[in-house]
């Protein structure tokens, strides 16, 4: 099939997938599924079209706030125009993500079937695509890594900075980028172009509002456990501060294992680092799975356990409002979060072994799990 035709098919399929996500979250359609986009609208910040970080705090980094503010301005205090504006922005970033992955797969001769399996028709894509800022983060990150591979380091650094201004999570990938650069001059140049936009934006907002840093970044530090498998080890809210320390320790250990392993290509290592972060962080909201889907497409391998992960991940939001306190162990969402964690851990170990050139057998699978 010709590349141009295949590209059109991918765009059409992506549009259909996004349309499905748009409809299931649409606030005027009966039986709609919760989304953060609509949750934001009920805040005075959005409904009354206030400036985020200046007039009122917002718990996401500045580019996320800009997207929300722009959508609220377009909406003019009305829910549906706001929802439509937000949706169009996410759709454009989703197309950017899909077409970037398409380009990388074409260049690397990866079968394009995987873009449909993991990035277009995956259940989490449809359910969580038009939900939060995750697709903006994923698009910026993948585009940054693509340019990094092409040695266009300044542009890569600026896009990596863009991803950080949406979500901070890509910082865990930064060390492997530094290790892949040949000398300190290139490393310092990359860091300069990465940090300058972040510092300019954040320092500017801190000057305008002295509580900016606290309202934006410390907000999540005070958050409790959410969909973390180790809630079963720390079932009482009184023990959650200890759980956060446990989270930090296993995260550092897991990340160091990947940094020091030198296993896998850029996309495989990025997937492993993001997976370690998600598995060890004390907050693993279901929309965060969007982060790893483009990497699974680029790894290009069918993993049947992926559908266990997906079923559990979609089930979290579908069962969330059935429980009086869905954060507690033993509830349906937390049982599903535990299943999801086991499935992702299996995929992580399998990816590690495959990248290491080892046979994927049960005995070999449990070795990296035991060491992590």
Report what the structure shows.
This protein is an all-alpha fold and 372 residues long. The chain is built from 18 helices and no strands.
Measured distance between first and last alpha carbons = 43 Å
Helical fraction: 55-70%
Q: Mean pLDDT score, rounded?
A: 94
- Gyration radius over CA: 20 Å
In the predicted model, the low-confidence regions spanning at least 5 consecutive residues are: none
Structure summary:
This protein is an all-alpha fold and 372 residues long.
Task: Describe the protein's topology.
Layout: H1 3-25, H2 36-41, H3 44-47, H4 62-75, H5 79-108, H6 113-120, H7 123-128, H8 134-149, H9 153-164, H10 174-180, H11 184-208, H12 212-221, H13 240-261, H14 266-280, H15 293-299, H16 305-320, H17 332-356, H18 362-371
Helix pairs in contact: 1-5, 4-5, 5-8, 6-15, 8-9, 9-11, 13-14, 14-15, 14-17, 16-17, 17-18
Which features does this protein show?
372 residues; 18 helices; 0% strand; globular; mainly alpha
């Amino acid at each position: 099939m010709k590349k141009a035709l295949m590209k059109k098919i991918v765009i059409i399929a992506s549009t259909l997938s996004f349309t499905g996500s748009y409809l299931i979250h649409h606030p005027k359609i009966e039986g709609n599924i919760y989304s953060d986009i609509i949750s934001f609208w009920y805040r005075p910040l959005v409904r009354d079209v206030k400036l985020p970080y200046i007039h009122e705090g917002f718990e996401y980094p500045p580019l996320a706030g800009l997207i929300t503010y722009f959508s609220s301005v377009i909406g003019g205090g009305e829910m549906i125009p706001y929802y439509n504006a937000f949706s169009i922005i996410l759709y454009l970033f989703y197309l950017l993500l899909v077409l970037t992955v398409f380009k990388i797969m074409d260049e690397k001769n990866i079968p394009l079937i995987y873009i449909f399996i993991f990035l277009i028709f995956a259940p989490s894509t449809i359910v969580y695509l038009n939900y939060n800022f995750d697709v903006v983060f994923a698009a910026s990150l993948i585009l940054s890594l693509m340019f990094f591979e092409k040695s266009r380091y300044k542009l890569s650094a600026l896009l990596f900075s863009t991803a950080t201004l949406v979500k901070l999570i890509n910082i865990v990938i930064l060390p492997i980028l530094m290790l892949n650069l040949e000398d300190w001059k290139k490393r310092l140049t990359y860091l300069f172009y990465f940090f300058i936009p972040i510092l300019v934006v954040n320092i500017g907002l801190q000057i305008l509002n002295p509580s900016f840093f606290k309202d934006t970044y410390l907000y999540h530090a005070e958050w409790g456990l959410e969909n973390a498998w180790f809630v079963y080890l720390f079932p009482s809210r009184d023990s959650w501060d200890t759980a956060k320390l446990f989270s930090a320790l296993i995260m550092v250990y897991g990340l160091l294992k990947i940094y020091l392993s030198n296993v896998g290509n850029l996309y495989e290592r990025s997937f492993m680092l993001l997976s370690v972060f998600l598995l060890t962080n004390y907050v693993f909201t279901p929309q965060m799975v969007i982060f790893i889907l483009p990497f699974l497409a680029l790894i290009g391998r069918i993993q049947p356990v992926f559908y266990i992960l997906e079923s559990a991940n979609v089930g979290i939001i579908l069962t969330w409002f059935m429980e009086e306190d869905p954060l507690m162990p033993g509830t349906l969402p937390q049982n599903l979060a535990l299943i999801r964690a086991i499935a992702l851990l299996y995929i992580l170990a399998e990816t590690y072994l495959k990248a290491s050139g080892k046979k994927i057998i049960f005995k070999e699978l449990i070795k990296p799990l035991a060491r992590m």
